[in-house]
User: Fold this.
Amino acid sequence: MTPASGFKVGRILGIPIYLHASWLIIFALITYSLAMQFSVDHPHWSQTEQWGVGLLTSLLFFGSVLFHELAHSVVAQRYKIRVVSITLFIFGGMARIARDPSRAIEEFNIAVAGPLASFFLYGIFHFLEKVFPASEFLGALSGWLAFINLRLALFNLIPGFPLDGGRIFRAIVWGATKSHSRATRIAGASGKLVAYGMMAYGASFFLKSDWQSGIWWVLIGWFLLDAAQQSVAQVAVREALAGLSAADVMTREIPTVDGHITLEDYGGEVLRTGRRCHLVLTDDRLVGMMNVHMLNSVPREEWAHNSVQAAMIPREKILWASPQEPLLRLLERLLAADVNQMPVVSGTEENGTHVVGMVTRDSILRVVQTGAELGPVTTSR
Ligand SMILES: [Zn+2]
Assistant:
């Protein structure tokens, strides 16, 4: 799944909050099982009360997960790392940050904040559980929330990357070895080990014919395995791009089109040349950028009546790169803005700027691919 998929439900501390479709499944399951549990534990409650308290408890549980993710996010923001989104999905929550922390201590603090927040909630609900009798709504609700927040904190502390415990583990290895890539490889291996462990644990339930628990653990293990592999792949990308800048991979050939031509003609130009992105000139002045993506955003039947100028990305909205920009940062910006290419501009505001080339996502990925094919090469960069 892509982390920011799902529907947006709001914004907290400037961070968009998303609910993934799979969240609905787990929300319904938890609400149902809570209502069932309350009907067994509290037969004197009315059915409406059993379901009402079940629903409220379930909502507060997801509030707890959100609180956990917000704790990670607040610490990340303190380090000036932008939090792109928080998504609640079937296995819990996920805060997506715009870049990796640049120091081990930052990663450690961001990772540890989540479990600490869950321990904090455990403390609050445990206190409420002591104050209010278990037969009452608040007591019953607090008892379950105390239990689940403690479980959440402990589960997340399992040292398998990318769980919080795995991130804490990586930060410690990173701090000790001063090597981010080695730390990630070790933490990634621990993540795989934990993931396989969970799958094996799940399989043990199958032997006891407890299919529900079995499937659950196998799925969590599978999800973690995938996530661990992805993070290790990310480090390979980092290593392949280290020391390279925009100037290394940009094409110096910059196709241009006239802003007055119709989209129909532009489509023809794209088909004829295979070039997917053009700078738009009007009377020899740079006014914007046009590409296949923008072309496709206009319905086909309107192509004949619209000019490139009407559909292009206007000049002031184009994202630019400088020739010296590190390639990894550039790739992150391309991905964050969801664009495929960026013009490279050199010069200064005073002396006049000019476009010297174009960097595409493909050209960067080719470098990564070639790096993977050649394996580690010791160069003096
Ligand atoms: Zn966490």
